[in-house]
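Homework-ish question, so no full write-ups if that breaks the rules, but can someone show me the predicted structure for this set?
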Amino acid sequence: MSGDGDGAGARVALIDRDGTIVIDRVYLDNAAGLEFLPGAAEGLRLLHERGYRLVVISNQSGIGRGRITREQMQAMNARLKEMVEAAGARLAGIYFCPHTPEDHCSCRKPEPGLILQAAAELGFDPRDAVVIGDKDSDIEAGRRVGAATVLITAEKVLGSNDLSADAAAADLVGAACAVFTLRDPPDPQSWQLGQ
Ligand SMILES: [Mg+2]
Ligand SMILES: [Zn+2]
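A: Not a homework solution, just the prediction itself:
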């Protein structure tokens, strides 16, 4: 622990899985079907190199619907960890909600339960974290805990007025750059000296 809220210990990226890290395959139930989206491996590595702890926060209602077994989910989590390590990064945790919307649980995004659980178990203040995801429910979950938010979107975002997130990016490389701008602005003094 750095023991200092502004230190590297405070850097946490809470990242959605499907449509953000890997190709969104509805109710994917097997590890072989996990495939990085363009820019994902590089974006994760950039965040890792800047000292961000990377935590996956994922809705997996296929479990509650009986489409994905717990064993299949565990196999996918193990494979995802391997893929991220092969990309030169590391996952500090994978948190998933197994419930369906009808369960009205407190962990299915946009509910913030998974983020709060990760914060308690991994020891960070959610307000220091950055949430990255491809859906409004990701952004909403982040906003509810006071985190910074970055939306992954293929659509061109014309004005920041129509954006509920703090920033938008086309992929995880762009999201990593947005995170650095939001959370690690250049030191004004060194910036001036660099002019
Ligand atoms: Mg998603
Ligand atoms: Zn849940």
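Now go work out the reasoning yourself. Hint: The CA atoms of residues 22 and 34 lie 6 Å apart.
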